[in-house]
Design goal:
Layout (H helix, E strand, L loop, with lengths): L4 H7 L10 H4 L2 E7 L2 E8 L7 H12 L3 E7 L13 E5 L7 H14 L4 E5 L7 H4 L9 E3 L3 E3 L1 E3 L2 E5 L14 H13 L8 E5 L6 H9 L4 E6 L3 H16 L4 E6 L4 E2 L6 E2 L6 H8 L4 E4 L4 H8 L4 H4 L4 H23 L10
Parallel strand pairs: 2-3, 4-10, 4-11, 5-9, 5-10, 11-12, 12-15
Antiparallel strand pairs: 1-2, 6-7, 8-9, 13-14
């Protein structure tokens, strides 16, 4: 059908999250005029649950006319991974910065805003996602055809972790090649159920597991988790540099323990310095996806097997996780649209 002035303006509407025109993103599928108002069908490559009314108002103001907006989510697809459209790693240069807590809450947040999600615990030596998701000790994944794991469902998402295959007290005293082999088995011999996103909770550091994953599967992007102090930022930079060497795009930085809100004095304290995550993101042309407080509730809820997004879905921190997850997904969509063919990885 011929394009109307209104549809042309709709294609120039700037996406509220990415800032790109919907026409450039290929988001406008159909427009029509009926009963004195405009109907528009728009599909975005990030989860849109909860945005319909907000976007409809914004589009109506942009066009200066009433618009009935049909807003849908269609996840982009990276090549080369059965049962998974997009694989996103959550990584850190060092331990103790809240990476696993961030990973599980981002996965749950994506589920809550309309995506099909799974989480893979790639920390073979120190798996924690079974505990964080409240999977009962001794519960094991079903094995199909004697070779394929069926992931365990927890709080609406699919999950696979070495913690679901051994007891909590069993040490995985394996050298690098064995751990890498275990990761490939968990990744490729799990029957992921048509996921829009598989979030991979990486072990800290820049070693065998990181290199194995980057060579074994198409990674849509990485999220780097850090805390604001200098020693954590130095390791975050190493993580970013490592992913750059294996051509994995950085979607952004998450800063944990960014501040502490004191109940007694009512003041906000930056215990571990301020703004470090934002500075590192700016250095590498990435975005600060979110800054999360040092809050006892986050730790308590995750230790209890009911992370914040599940325990307090209407709270401010859960809303921040949802916003961060949506922006992460949007950046992954844009990155895939702009991606060049993947180069061959050489180890030197």
């Amino acid at each position: 059908m011929a394009q109307s002035p209104e549809s042309s303006s709709l294609e120039s509407f700037r996406d509220p999250i990415l800032g790109d025109a919907w026409g450039e993103l290929g988001a406008v599928r159909r427009t029509a005029r009926r009963d004195g108002k405009w109907l528009a069908d728009v599909r975005l490559g990030y989860p849109v649950a909860g945005l319909e009314a907000e976007y409809a108002r914004a589009v109506s103001e942009w066009l200066g006319a009433e618009v009935e907006l049909t807003l849908a989510f269609e996840a982009p697809r990276a090549k080369g991974m059965d049962g998974v459209k997009n694989l996103i790693t959550v990584a850190s240069g060092k331990g103790g910065v809240g990476k696993s807590t961030t990973a599980v809450n981002l996965a749950l947040a994506l589920d809550r805003i309309g995506a099909r999600v799974g989480i893979l615990d790639a920390d073979i030596h120190g798996p924690s996602q079974g505990i964080m998701l409240g999977v009962a000790e001794g519960r094991r994944p079903e094995v199909r055809d004697e070779r394929t794991f069926v992931p365990i469902k927890a709080h609406g998402i699919e999950a696979m972790s070495m913690s679901m295959l051994v007891t909590e007290r069993t040490p995985m005293a394996w050298r690098g090649p064995m751990a890498s082999g275990a990761l490939q088995q968990l990744l490729k011999q799990t029957a992921w159920g048509g996921l829009d996103y598989l979030i991979v909770d990486m072990p800290p550091g820049t070693g065998d597991i990181q290199l194995t994953l980057s060579q074994s599967a198409p990674v849509a992007g990485a999220v780097i988790v850090t805390t604001p102090q200098d020693i954590a930022l130095a390791d975050a930079r190493k993580g970013i540099e490592m992913f750059a060497k294996v051509n994995v795009p950085i979607l952004g930085v998450v800063e944990n323990m960014s501040y502490f809100d004191c109940d007694g004095c009512g003041k906000r304290h930056h215990i571990f310095a301020a703004g470090g995550g934002g500075r590192v993101a700016e250095e590498y042309g990435a975005e600060l996806l979110g800054a999360f407080p040092l809050a006892p509730a986050i730790r308590e809820q995750t230790d209890a097997g009911r992370p914040t997004v599940v325990s307090d879905p209407d709270g401010e921190i859960a809303a921040l996780y949802r916003d961060t997850a949506r922006r992460m997904a949007a950046l992954a969509w844009r990155t895939l649209q702009r991606a060049a063919p993947a180069p061959t990885i050489r180890m030197e």
